Amino acid sequence: MSSEPGRRPEVLQGEAGVEPAVAVLRQGGLVAFPTETVYGLGADATNPDAVRRIFAAKGRPADHPLIVHLGDAGLVEAWADVVPVEAHLLADAFWPGPLTMLLWRSPKAPDVVTGGRDTVGLRVPDHPLARRLLEAFGDGVAAPSANRFGQVSPTTAADVVADLGTEVDVVLDGGPCRVGVESTIVDLTGDEPVVLRPGGVGLDRLADVLGRQPEVHRGPAPARAARAPGMLAAHYAPRARVVLADAERAAQVANALASAERGRVGVLGPRATDGLAPGVVELEPAGTPDEYARLLYARLRQADRLRLEWLVCVPPPARGVGVAVRDRLTRAAASAPADAPAPDPTAGR
Ligand code: TXA
Ligand code: MG
């Protein structure tokens, strides 16, 4: 299963693709598959050589751990050493679904999957094709998001082909992803559950099940940053530089950037933005927090296709999956290259 230059992956539509995809996994190959959050780049999690191919395909540093995807919550006991009561509560409430739990790993979890850590990330995704694939495979499939390192996550099969085309053996096409941002990651290896990444399961829903508001890790606190090394700002950024603005000020900021003539400027928000100067590109508004999440990465990719230098983003309200959208936008805004000129939205006034 080696990739030849210029080779295209096999893109298989719907359920007919499941059987050949399972065969590819068994042979140590790479299968990109849809989940409800984003597309994953999967390999047999028990096969270290196959998992190593994921890192090569993505250009991802080898010490970044991967989530093990399971078709059945019953497999958690095989992959995790200790399963606290919170894990059972969360699995019953949210699996299959956009929740990843970090647990102490069992000997079954290879170092290449955990990045040498003592913990393993486990998730039962909720997409009919992912479920069919995982059930038929019968064991863990290690999968990061199916983008090249440094790109935003793919939410369509076409995004996967554009990013990783020649590196993947099979792409299962299950249409656009329903949630659109990655899973919520909850660390259950400490005294208290800690949310390491907000995602498809909102914090209020977690609190309802846990009986208390979980601690949310914010910012690059070194101790916790080491726990989720994939949380670098640049992981969620387009090439365009993202600038955050309130709805009332978005037009002013966008127009000032446009008149400073530092490249093309776009605007993205939950609603239409009035008063934009000619030449400022308005991306189609993203509506409710759920819709914003579903469309976010497609819009960021569109910004790059349009060769925007700047994207002024109005975040959605911080409720439900809106918290995850705000998290990704904040990371994108923080990841401006160090050598770029500082944004000066008042320039040209
Ligand atoms: O929605 C999702 O979670 C998607 C789909 C494909 O399931 N997957 C995804 O994977 O977003 P990835 O690799 O792009 O992001 C997973 C994050 C990374 O930040 C990684 O560092 C963290 O989870 N992670 C996984 N296992 C971990 C572990 N044992 N310890 C600490 N962090 C872990
Ligand atoms: Mg990723």
**How would you characterize the largest beta sheet?**
11 strands, mixed
Bound molecules: threonylcarbamoyladenylate, magnesium ion
How many structural domains does the protein architecture include? 2
Sheet with most strands: strand arrangement: 1-8-2-3-7-4-6-5-9-10-11
Cα-to-Cα separation, first versus last residue: 58 Å
**General shape:** globular
**Protein structure class:** alpha/beta
Rg result? 20 Å
CATH C-level label of the largest domain: Alpha Beta
Strand content: 15-25%
Averaging pLDDT over every residue, what do you get? Answer: 91
Q: Name the CATH superfamily assignment of the largest domain.
A: DHBP synthase
Unreliable stretches: 221-225, 338-349
What is the succession of H and E elements?
EHEEHEHHEHEHEHEEEHEHEHEEHEH
Describe the overall structure.
This protein is of the alpha/beta class and 349 residues long. It has 2 domains: 10-225, DHBP synthase (Alpha-Beta Complex); 241-334, Threonylcarbamoyl-AMP synthase, C-terminal domain (Rossmann fold), CATH 3.40.50. 31% of the residues lie in helices and 16% in strands. The chain contains 12 helices and 15 strands. It has helices at residues 18-26, 48-58, 76-79, 85-94, 111-114, 128-137, 157-164, 203-210, 222-225, 250-259, 289-305, 322-334; strands at 10-13, 31-33, 40-44, 67-69, 99-104, 119-123, 141-143, 170-173, 184-187, 194-197, 215-216, 241-244, 265-268, 281-282, 310-313. It has an 11-stranded mixed sheet, with helices on both faces. Helix 1 crosses helix 6. Mean pLDDT is 91; it is low at 221-225 and 338-349. Residues 35, 37-38, 40, 64-67, 98, 100, 102, 114, 117, 119-121, 123, 125, 143-145, 182-183, 185, 227-231 line the site of threonylcarbamoyladenylate.
